[in-house]
Write a structure and sequence with these properties.
Length: about 475
């Protein structure tokens, strides 16, 4: 799949390297009011690019096209989560899920019972958990990234962030590596399996101090052993695919070593624009800071999400019933879309039970949305919020916020027993109560769902993506 290939490309999208596309206002929803999602079917200069069913200028066989098609399938995520969240245990069993798995799902969602006072804290925790790169240091890096015109500095920042992400994922990567080794053993003869098992026992639980030794065991013993095994047996099937995955995760694991991350940090220190923001912070201090960080705790793990992953694993392996395996695969595909190299947005999806009402919600956030119509030239925040409430229906809310001014479009279900004017009045009062000026507000009944790729046209812009094939 294109969204998990992690294609490595040169740093792209800089304004001095390519020409900015001219977007017609009627083709671009929500940059500034009025927001017109119904009229925004395409974006970009249509004469400049060749067209395809996936979007303007997108080659149908490219990874980007596969990514766009995955975005178009995102509603499947809501459909599957609706079945899991809205249906009780009996309904889940009727849909083909085994009784024990249905009970596990029901128990998992009981952990999500929230009062209205707890929702804000829950949402903040969810969004923070979706983004590892938050905190004062990364806020400063974003400022440097937006203010500098140096392509070399921007590339150095991106390289540092890539290595930091691998470092913060060290425990997860080691877990994957060990799981892949165990899976490989299933396809080996007894003697080879015992040798690989003995080598794998040398791997230690991950920490910044054990990273170097684990990397050495993987690169100098385990991977060479597997290479010899393939050469001797000529096994070109499942084992070879697993070995490729193992080497990829080993590369990321090595890339996340503390020395590697600090080497990237020292590279940034060579630029005056970086020193201007980080002049009082040395690489030695940063290294000591990273050594004290508990990356697992910082990731914001919750008990319900761990149980959710357990249910997902069982479903994908067919342990929840072979006829429901495709349903769990669709769920996984929808949740992995934010791992794509093409995703310039923060995407978070979460279920909750608010005052006894089950709700499944997704948020797509661009914290740096460009606004060509802004007199000051400043960027704002664009949010696409989707949520489905049991026995109420599906809601779409598209928002643009800048300088205490809010523009908003809401689509609400036909059967909601409330007048649109009452909803509009209530939203206006809430916004004003929180110090925001209502610049534009549209409330409409029974409209179609707003596609993600329409709400955020930059997903189609070639300066934010690359057409490649593998």
């Amino acid at each position: 799949m294109s969204n998990i290939l992690k294609v490595t490309t040169p740093a792209l999208g800089y304004e001095n390297a390519v020409n900015k596309q001219n977007l017609n206002q009627e083709d671009n929803i929500g940059i500034r009011p009025p927001l017109k999602p119904d009229n925004a079917a395409e974006t970009g200069n249509k004469n400049q690019f060749s067209s395809s069913k996936d979007g303007p200028g997108i080659f149908q066989e490219s990874n980007l096209a596969n990514f766009i098609r995955t975005l178009q399938d995102v509603p499947k995520l809501r459909e599957v989560m609706g079945k899991l969240l809205f249906g009780g245990t009996e309904h889940l069993i009727e849909s083909g899920i085994r009784a024990q798995t249905a009970k596990d799902i029901s128990a998992m969602f009981q952990l999500l019972n929230l009062s209205s006072d707890e929702v804000a804290k829950f949402l903040k925790k969810q969004t923070e958990g979706s983004n590892r790169l938050h905190g004062p240091m990364f806020d400063l890096l974003r400022k440097v990234m937006s203010e500098t015109s140096s392509v070399e500095l921007k590339f150095s920042i991106l390289e540092f962030l890539k290595k930091y992400n691998d470092m913060s994922s060290g425990s997860h990567l080691m877990h994957n590596i060990q799981s892949e080794i165990k899976e490989i053993q299933k396809y080996m003869f007894h003697q080879d399996r015992e040798q690989l098992e003995a080598l794998a026992k040398q791997l230690q639980p991950h920490s910044l101090t054990t990273n170097e030794k684990n990397t050495s065991v993987l690169k100098n013993q385990i991977i060479p052993f597997l290479g010899r095994y393939i050469s001797t047996t000529g096994n070109m099937g499942k084992v070879r695919d697993l070995i490729n995955l193992l080497t990829y995760n080993t590369s990321r694991y090595e890339n996340g070593a503390l020395d590697s991350v600090m080497q990237a940090f020292r590279k940034m220190e060579e630029f005056p624009a970086f020193q201007k923001k980080f002049g009082g912070m040395t690489s030695e201090e940063v290294a000591k800071l990273f050594e004290r960080v508990d990356f697992e705790k910082a990731a914001g793990k919750a008990e319900w999400s761990e149980k959710f992953l357990d249910v997902m694993r069982a479903g994908i392996k067919g342990q929840a019933g072979t006829q429901t395996r495709e349903m769990f695969l669709n769920l996984l595909n929808g949740m992995l879309v934010n791992e794509s190299v093409y995703m310039p947005l923060l995407h978070t999806a979460f279920p909750l039970i608010l005052e006894g009402v089950p709700i499944f919600s997704e948020m797509w956030i661009d914290p740096d949305e460009e606004s060509e119509n802004s007199p000051s030239g400043e960027n704002g925040i664009k949010i696409l919020l989707k949520f489905d409430m049991k026995e109420v229906g599906f809601f779409d809310i598209l928002m643009y916020y800048q300088n205490q001014k809010m523009s908003m479009v809401m689509h609400y279900p036909d059967k909601l027993p409330v007048k649109g004017e009452d909803i509009r009045k209530g939203i206006s009062e809430i916004l004003k109560k929180n110090g925001m000026e209502v610049e534009y507000l549209s409330v409409e009944k029974g409209k179609e769902s707003i596609p993600v790729s329409v709400a955020f046209p930059k997903l189609y812009e070639r300066r934010n993506s690359v057409n490649v094939t593998i």
